[in-house]
Amino acid sequence: MHVFRLPALLLVLMVAAACASNPRPNETPAATVIVDNQSSLTMDIYLRRRDQAPTRLGFAPANRKTRFALSPALTAGAGLVRFEARPALGGELTSSDLLSVGPGDELTWVIPPQ
User: Mean of the pLDDT values across residues 102-108?
Assistant: First the structure.
């Protein structure tokens, strides 16, 4: 009975190593946007694809840089996107130019001081 323990244990370890979480080669890498909020206002950040309703990405605190991951679902087939910043406590909307985005891209958008 002890003869089978070592090979069984080695088999279990090999299977566990083979199932380790390595990225699959066909997975699309997420794009990212770094929002450099130079404004004194905390902003709510949105991504707008063409003529669609905006999708909220999250908050960008005042005078800070914030990184947002853009899932492949947000950027698939989009080609061009626009980012929008809305002050959390109300105020004037700020938007980016149209930007080209693809898988794995890293974009930077600067919100100017207000």
Answer: 91
